[in-house]
Every structure is written in C-alpha cells, then in structure tokens.
C-alpha cells in the first residue's frame, strides 16, 4: 500500500531509469545525425506522433481503468476479510455459550479465534508466494498444523477445521441449529473471499493487449524526435524525454496495479491487514476471557514508505 | 456535502488562487521576453499544446471518474448505515417483547437504540481523525464507555456490546432464536459498512497515477503561452490563465473527491447523517415508550455553504 | 418519464431558447464588428475552438455518463419498490392465515396492503418536495395518520406501523416465526429503497465539476465565431448557433438527469409507478377477499407528453 | 438473438438503405453544383468535419455503451429466469413429499411446474406487446386461466397462484415451514426478474440525448462533401457514402440495443428461452413421474437468421 | 488461460500473419503505382487517416472493454464455482452425520462429493462443445450416468441428483431441516453459475457492432499508404504494416476475449479449474474418510504455453 507524502521522487523514477536513459540517448543520436549526416535529414509533420499519442492515451486510459479495477477489487476482498473475521469472532463469542461457562468452551472459543488469525496470515503468505505455514505455530496447535500441512491448499484446510469445530459445538450443545447454519454462512463468505483472491492471482491480464500497447508506445517514442527536431533544435532531447517518461510511467503503473499480490509496493497490504485483524481479535479475546493474556507482541510495521 | 446554489464564487477560486497567480505571472513574463529579448522568440505550432490538452483531458476524465466512484461509494455506505440503523431500531422494538412489558425490557431497548446512535457518531468522528469517544457520554453508560475505550477500534467494540445484549435478550426470552440470528445479520451489515469506510479511508489513490497527470499538466501549461502568443498578443495572458484555471480546477476536484473522509467541504456529510439518524431513532424511541422524553436538543446545522 | 414520439420539438428547444438567442446575437455582433471595425479583425485558426470542442465533448461524455447512472439508479430503486410491494402483498395474503378465516384477519390483511399503497404515494410525494401526508386518508385510518404525522420522516413511520402489525400477527398466531422474519426482511428491503432514494435526493452532484464544464463551454462558444468567420462569412451565424445548441442541449440533459426527483419531465415517474402499484395491489386484494370492492377509481394519467 | 455467421449482408444494409441513398444523392448534388455553379464553390478545410467526427464518435461510443448495458441487463435477467425456473422445479420435486406418494401430490407438483412454464411464456409475450394469455391453455387449467385473466398484469397473477399452492402444500403437510419460506424466496426472485424486465420495457432511453446525437450526425454528413471535394473529386461520393454508412449503422445499432423487448432481431430471445425452459422442465417432470408423458411437441425454432 | 512470459512471439503474430501479408503487398503496390503510373499520383493529407485512426481507437477501446468484461465475468463465474464446490463439500462432510458413523453415510458423502467433481467436468466439457458425458464414469455410478444421459442438459441433471440425495439425507435423519435448506441454497448458486455460463456462451456479441468496426478498419488501412507515401517514400511500407498490425492485433484480441468458452488459448481455463477442484475435493474426502484412498491420478497439465 502506498503511503501518501512519503514516496521519494527517486523511487518513482527508479522504476523507469533505464528506459529514460535509452530514450535520452536515442534522441541525442537523432539530433546528432540530423545535423551531421545530411542524407537522413528526415523531419516528419508533428501530426503523426501527436495523433499516435492520442490513440495511445486512449488505450492506456482504458487499460489503467481495468488494472485499477483489479487492484481495487483486491482491496475490496481484503476489506471483506476484515469484516467477516470480526463478525466471525463476534458470533463465536456471542453464539457459543452454555449455562455455566466451562473451561472447555473457553478453550474452544479461543482456539477458534486464533485459528481465524492463522487463516488470515496463511492466506496472505500463500498469495504472495511464500510458504502458507510460516509462523502458524503461534496460532495453531501442533496437531492442527500437521493436518493442514497434508493439504495442497492450506487456507482452505484451515476453514475445514473451523467447520469441524462448529459441528462439535452443535453436538456439545453450545450452539443451536440456526446458529450453526449462520456460522457456516460466515465461513462460506470467507471461502468466497479466498477464492476471489486466488482468481485474481491466477488470471493474468490478457497479455496480447498489453503487448499491443507496448509496441505502439515504442513506435510512438521512435517517431517523437523527428517531429520535434525542426521546432526545438537540441531542446528536443528534453521535450522527448519528458513526454516519453510520462507515458512510460503510466504504463508501469498499470502493470503494477493489475497484479495486486506480487510483493510490490502497490500491492494490497495483506500483511498489515492480517496484523490489524490479529490485534482486534486478540483484544476481543482478552476482553471476553476477562483477563489480560500475555499478548504476543505484534511487530511494529517498519517505517518504510510502503506497507506490505 | 456541497449545498447547491450556495457556493460562493470566491470559494471555488480560493482553492486555486496561488496557482492562477503563478500562471498569470508566467504568461506575462513569456510575453515580455518574446517582445524584448529577440534571442528567445520561440513560437510553437498550436498543435503541440492542443494535442497535449486532449491527452490530459482524457486522463483527467478517467481519473475524475475513479475519484467520483470513491466519493459515491462512500455516500452509498453511509446511506446503507442510515437504512440499517433504522432497520435495527425497528427490529429491536418489534422483536424484543414479553407478555407483560417490563421496565427491564424497556431499558434494554432504549439502551440498544441509544448505543446505535453512539456508534454512528463514533464511526463518523473516527473516520475524520477525531477522537471516537467525544460526546458518547450522551448515549452510553459510564461502564460501556470504559469497556469500549479499552479497544483500539471503538466503533467495532460498540457493535460487540450490541451482540452481547442480543445474547442476553435471547437468554431472557425476549427474542427467539430466529430473531437473534436476524438481529445478528443486521449487525454484520453494520460491521461491513464500517469496514468499507475504513477501507476507503486507509487506501490512498495510486499516487504515481496522480503524479503523472500533475507533471503532464505542468508541462502543458508551460507550453501554452508559446502556442498562443503569435495569434493573440497580450490577450494571450487571459486565454492561458482561463484554460489553465479550468484544468487545475478539475484536477483539484478529483483530489477532493477521491478522499471522502478528510474534513473537506466535498466530504461525505457524516456529522449531518449521524444527526439525522439520532433524530429519527429518538422519535421512534419516544413513540414506543409512549411518552415524550426530555429530548436532548440536536444542535441545528450551521448555516454554512457546506455540511460536515 | 419521457414518452417516446410525443416530445414536441418546441419542448426540446424551449429549454434552451434564451441561450440560443444570446448566442445568435453574439455571433451576428462578431460578424458586424469584423466587417466594419477594422481594428478588431481577429480571425483565429479553426484548431483552437475545434480542439476545445473535443475536450468538452469528452468531459461532457463522462459527465452525462454519471448523470445517466444516477437517473438509471433511481429508476432501478423504484423498480425494486414495485417488486417488493408485490412480494409483500403476496406474502401478506399467503402467509397470514388461520384455520377459519376470521373477519379480523381479513381486516388486518386489507389494512396492511392499503398501508403499503400509502407508503408508496407518501414516499413519492416526499421525494418531490410535496407534503408526504396528502391523500393518505384514502388508505390509512385516522389513528394511523395521526401517528405518522408526529414523525419527521413519514414514510419511515409507515414502515414502523407495518412492523407493529407483523408483531401482532405473530402474537395472534396468524404467522409463524419464520414468516415473521421473512416479512421483516421484505420491509428491510423497502426501507433500503427509501434510504437510497433519499441519498440520491440529498446528495448534489459535485458542483465544481459542473461549473468547470460550464465555464469551458462558455469559453468555447465565445471563440467559435472567430474560427468560422473567414470560411463561412455570414453563414457563420447559422453554424455557430447549430453547434452551440447541440452542446448546450446535452449539458441541459445531464443537469436534468442528475437529479431524478425534482418535478421535471425526465424525472423518475414516481406518481405513475405508485398508481400502478395501487392498481395491482387492489386487484389482488379484491380477488383475495372474494368480492369486488367498490374500487376507488384511479385517476387516468393525463395525456401529457410526459409522466410524473 | 443474433446468430453468428448467418446475418446476410443484405439485412445489415437493408436497415439503412434509404439513408444511404439520400446521402449518395446529396453528395452527387454537391459535386455537380461545385463544378457547374461557380457562385457556391465552397470548400471547407477537412478539419471541420474531421473534428466533428471525433466528437460524434465519442458520444456515440458512450451511447452504445449505455444501450449495450440495457441489452446485456435484459439478457442477464432472462438468464436469471432460466436459473430460477430450474431451481423452482428442483425445489418443488425435492421439497414436496409425503410418506406415501399420493396422486394428489403428483398432480400438485405437475401443476406447479406447468404453471412455471406458463409464466415464462406469458411474461415473454407480455413484454413483446402480445397477449399474455395466448397459448396458456396448454399449461394452465381452465379455472386458472379465468382467474389470471381478471388481472391487468397476468404474469404477476400467475406468481400469486404459485404462492397459493405453496400455502396449500404447507397446510397439507407436504412441505415444512422452512421450505415454504425458501420457495417463497424463489418466487420473490422471479417477481424481481419480472419487475426488472418491465422497468427496461417501460423506461425509454433519454430521448433528448438521442436527438442531440442524431442532429450532430446530420450536420456532420452535410459538411462532409465540402471537406472531401477538393481532394478526391468525384470519388468524394464514394468516400462520403462509406463514412456516413458507418456512422449511421452504429447509431442504428445503438437504437436497436437500447430497447431489448421490441420484436426486433437484436431482441432478447424470450421465445427461444421460454421454449428451452419448457423442454428442461418437462424432461424433469417426466423423469420424476417415472414415465414418459405424451410430450407436447415443442415447435422447432424456424431456420431464420435470428431467434425471437 | 494465458500464462505470463510464455507466449512465443510467433504465436502472437501467427494470428494475423495472412492479414499482415496482404497489407504489406497492398502498400508495396501503392508505392509502385505511385512512382510509375503518373495518372494515379494521389497523395491525401495525413489528417484523413489520422483522424479515422482516432475514431477507430475510440470504438475499439469501448469494444475491448465490453469483450474484456465478458471474459472477466466468465472468470468470475468459474471462481464462484470453485468456492461453491468447496463450500458444498465442506457442508456435506460437516452437516451430514449420525450418532454412530455408518458405512451408508460414508458412501452417501463420497458419492455426493464425487458427483460434484463430475458436475464441474461435465459443465466445462459442455461449454466447450464436447460431450458432457466423457470421463464421467470415473465419478458417477452406472445408474446415475444412465439417468443423466436421458436429459438434454446433463449438468442440470447432475444437480437434480444432488437434490434427490439431500432429500434422502433429510429422510434418513442425517441432516436437519435447516441444513437441507442451506444445502439447497448452495445448489441454487451452482445452478446460477451454470446458467450464467450458458448465457455468455449462447449470446453472441452484437455482430453489427463488430462489423462496423471491421469495415472502418479496412477503410482506414486502405487510406493509410496514401497518407504516408509523400513523407516516407518506400519506408511507408514498414510504417503502414506496423500501424495496421497494431490495430488488427487489438481487434483480434477483442474477438477472442468476447467468447470465453470456444477452445481458444484466451479461454477461461475450465479444464484446469475442474482439475483443481477435483484435487482439493479428493484430498478432503480422503482426510474425512480417515485413510488414503488409491487416488485416481490427476493427469499433469501439459507444459504448453496456455491452459485449457
């Protein structure tokens, strides 16, 4: 997640520094040849690159729109994960009860809430291509970890453990039949959110589309110096570089936004969101248990200019 | 929220008065240099800035679209909060009952409805960066305030209190098991709305995108006087300023719309909406209680040209 | 609601007749000055107004899109009101029953359905700024009217009366607990629809955005005659007026569409829809009661070229 | 529904043959006058019609987008009708049961499924402006037809009959109370789909918007020959006709798409969809009844190049 | 599904190699005629093809947008199929139980889950135009295959078998009445997803729209050489071919994206998704059964550069 007012100028242009260098070199070369080699004194009317620029802006506009939509959808999904995690914990604490609160029930509820935290971390790590099991020992029992590590899809396996505990709670009389169905619905929503993340992660943006725009952009940049050389002279190098940088930046942006789970600064901040869920659910758990648990300290987010 | 027909002209241009001054100074300077310093008598064909203008309009159009969508989504969410608050109060009064209406039940219902008002105010203040606890003592008991102030996320804690009261109502026999689940769903919807607001608040608009458009706009304004100077002479200053002001205004608008919870006049009017909910829920409460409570006077909205 | 094939040409241009007159006068003036006063013989290249025209079309296109979305959303909501009113009536007649159909039950059902008709009319009138109580005496008892007139928000109060009757029906054993919850959901959907209408009604379109486009349009029209005068001579007046009229018409259209509850011909036809609901629900009521009630005649829609 | 690869070239241009003839005649006339009458030898720069063309493309693009959305929404709704009809039949066969399958129950289930087929046909015919009662005698009993023909809105009346049968099934003990509510929800969804179709049918596309684009297009076509006459000579007739035909075709397309229930080839294929539902539901009915009913032969869809 | 970084350059241009060859031949011909046949030395101003290019980009942009939406919707639906299949399996294992786990129950659960795998494969094959019955013998009993093969719509028939088993489970007391309704809802969602796929498959993109853009593109390419010949000479062939290729590529892309179930590389990867569901559901089944079943080996996805 980008944090406002903190992105160093260096970072932004770091992304395209090689491209900018190439363009600058190219436009100097064109200028040099134009003034020395009399044979290739080509100057094309400005209309050609200008119109090409309009066309490219249009397509780039449509494309950034679609990339933005993917990125915003990913953020939507993780927003829903926050809401459903909170609702699940609320339901666990307010649905599951018996006449005399037993230790067994308290253990079940705590296990449930910790497992939900584990799911959030596990899903985030899985989407980023890391091991979905790392760090789960803080939240899951050894037996549960063994069970879920047998599955290819670890987060889905964690949700199955949820469902088993709900069944056991029904059998123990902690919840009634309506509450079971209602809890199952919350789990179905979490399952949906997981599936949606996986869909975005596994479906590449149509690459022919991207390639077309990239080729058009190259053609446009190649023609640019010939359009400006007669009007601006050597200043042409500056104008060409500035305009090219603008277009390349927005193309880069679209490429980043379209894949929101790739360890890039514009990513959905899954780690930060998972830590927030952890904090909220732990506070709720401590409050319900009526005493302050020795809270596992949540590592502070590093003072970087973006959140993972 | 902007109120129609009330925005003074001064306010609109106040937003960009420094920028307009700079542009005017710059174009006067260009005119002066053009007519005095014979060396830099550059006049570029109008096509260059004109086409650049089309490109920028296009990108600005796409961007305002996205900013508008964020703003409109925020408004949607607060609309849903109004609806769900009304539905919650209706359900509380029509679901919760016993054969002989007891004082205890009446207290529970009133406590519930007042807490819902507290939640609305608290969420609005939290989103605007103010303390979420300010003024809650009008609606919450001292004990409840103590409980919620232990949480990092105060509005979420208030919803948890709701859930506890629903559980108690089930145990006391005021509601049946279906009604508990139905009330819990309404609370889940409120929890969703809260999460959506926090998502919009915490996710910045991709800043590289904004920066790109801003740089392009600067480039465009810099080139503008050179395009008009030959045709219009000194009148060029007027034309350049007018066109620049248009573009800068719409960019400003997009910047305002994209962050709808930042104490700006184009914000979602969370305070006004919370007050409306307070008014409606109190009327309902008084009517149900069968007598006119000494209503806490709702402060009139200030006669400003926008609502907070 | 606009009715196809019935809008007189006069109506369309009536909307912008003063503006057209001003533009015509202005372009005649420009022509006169151009040919008589030799000092101000300015002719600007056609590119300037032409490109400005592209920019404005683009922004106008985006804006009409957003205005159209508001208008279409309003139509969506009233479509949902039709559906939910029909569903509510169907549920009332098919859920509420007892072994031997009593007169009391029939009265309850009829009261319920009539109150639903009352709600529709009341909401429509409220949105258009008329008194929400006018004409309700045809559908509500004197006591109910007294109750709802104590509320600031009359339609919301009518829905509360619905909820009370549902509670009484549960207590009388006419419906079971599932049916109560299901009826409550239908009422929640109606409550949502009401809230959505109020959101559209109370949220103005960002006015700075509109103003920007309006100023740009003025600038464009002012420049237009200077672009055409050399090519077309006096015919310039015709061309300028035609083009300006086109742009002004589409701007007017966007302004109308963006506020769909303002007593304008492009409004959502809330009165007509409410009358249709009244007709359908009354037919259903008569059929269920097994006899033809002396139907209150629904006033025919006036043969105007638009429906309110 | 348009069937791919089957639309004869003649059909496409048949739609605009008169318009094309007028344009051709007009451009020949302009050529003739240009070369014979020396007085009106006007040739305007190509920029004027060209830019006008861009503006019109833009608006036409936005408009086709909105027309396409209406058409696609209509297709969505009928897709939902297919799904909900299948679900309703599945629920009727799997929910409604008793210990010993009686003939009475079998009759009820068959009556229900046939009535659902009737509803689909009736809704389709109603939307296309045909009598909603035609052909219903194949699916409804004489008594049911009499009942529904008393209603203004026949499909809504059929859904009411559904609801009555569900109530009777509950009273006879064929279904339990949850299943009643679940069946009622399916019927509410069908009721929603019907209401959405009626909304699209009854809400015209804002006609001022269409008119504006139409006038602009006429203006553009009138100017076109003057722009090309100097460059192309008599070939101008061909170029002008080709370009005009393109624009007129896409305008026609938008007009067709925006009203998807008007007996036009681009319509939603309500008849074909209703027949598919009929086929699927009958197969299910025969299978459940355990014997092959003498199936009413479904008339083959005519080998036309589009489906109704 | 396109796999990133693996699409050979040859593949991309293979799609349009004939078109590129034609364009190249055509522009060489124009060059040859221009320089040899003095009669047809037509050179048109660059503005004509350039503006036409803008118009076409705009329409192509809108169209790719709509094609992309269809493709993305198809991907959405199959994402929902993954989620609902997982949820169905989870519900089957956690809802269906009895006091002493009997072999009969285990068989029922396994049959259910295998049938769900069968449904996924069957739907995928049906959408791609293959026989929906191929390979189902791995998952369905001989009797079930016989039953479903009597239906025109095989996947819908499989869902009916699901519904029958749910009814039997209710009668056997494995599930309660709420769970039956909840399972039925999951099946309704699967039924919805199937219907949505069929809608996309059976509704062609409005062909007149496609044709219009195709004709405009042809006209544009025909005019292109005449615009460039004077400026670039023989180099014109390269420029014309490059620009044409760009436009043709993006048109091709839109054509591919708009029909996402046609055995093309850009298709929704229904086979791969069905195999993933198979893998996940089998792992869950083995785990629940408490022993490792001799798993039917899932054929590895071929190392091609796209997934089916």
TrEMBL record, chains A, B, C, D, E:
InterPro entries: ABC1_TM_sf, YneE/VCCN1/2-like
Spans traversing the lipid bilayer: 20-37, 43-62, 209-226, 232-250
Organism: Flavipsychrobacter stenotrophus
The organism's place on the tree of life at top rank: Bacteria
Molecular function terms, GO-annotated: ATP binding; chloride channel activity
Family: Belongs to the anion channel-forming bestrophin (TC 1.A.46) family.
Topology class, membrane: Multi-pass membrane protein
Pfam hit, one: Bestrophin_2
Signal peptide bounds: none
UniProt KW keywords: Cell membrane, Ion transport, Membrane, Transmembrane, Transmembrane helix, Transport
Name recorded for this polypeptide: Hydrogenase
């Amino acid at each position: 997640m980008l944090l406002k007012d903190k992105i160093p100028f260096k970072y932004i242009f770091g992304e395209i520094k090689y491209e900018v260098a190439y363009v600058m070199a190219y436009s100097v070369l064109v200028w040099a040849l134009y003034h020395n080699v009399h044979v290739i004194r080509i100057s094309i009317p400005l209309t050609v690159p200008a119109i090409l620029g309009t066309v490219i802006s249009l397509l780039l506009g449509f494309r950034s729109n679609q990339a933005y939509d993917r990125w915003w959808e990913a953020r939507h999904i993780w927003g829903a994960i926050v809401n459903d995690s909170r609702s699940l914990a609320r339901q666990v604490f307010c649905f599951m009860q018996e006449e005399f609160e037993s230790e067994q029930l308290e253990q079940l509820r705590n296990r449930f809430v910790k497992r939900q935290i584990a799911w959030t971390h596990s899903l985030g790590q899985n989407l980023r291509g890391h091991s979905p099991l790392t760090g789960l020992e803080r939240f899951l029992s050894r037996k549960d970890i063994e069970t879920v590590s047998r599955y290819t899809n670890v987060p889905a396996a964690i949700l199955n453990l949820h469902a088993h505990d709900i069944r056991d709670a029904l059998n123990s009389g902690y919840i009634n039949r309506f509450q079971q169905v209602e809890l199952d619905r919350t789990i179905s929503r979490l399952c949906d959110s997981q599936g949606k993340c996986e869909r975005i992660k596994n479906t590449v943006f149509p690459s022919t589309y991207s390639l077309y725009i990239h080729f058009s952009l190259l053609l446009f940049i190649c023609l640019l110096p010939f359009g400006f050389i007669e009007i601006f002279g050597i200043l042409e190098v500056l104008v060409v570089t500035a305009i090219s940088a603008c277009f390349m930046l927005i193309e880069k942006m679209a490429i980043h936004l379209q894949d929101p789970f790739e360890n890039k600064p514009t990513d959905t901040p899954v780690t930060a969101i998972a830590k927030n869920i952890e904090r909220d659910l732990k506070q709720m758990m401590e409050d319900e248990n009526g005493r302050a648990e020795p809270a596992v300290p949540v590592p502070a987010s590093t003072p970087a200019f973006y959140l993972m």
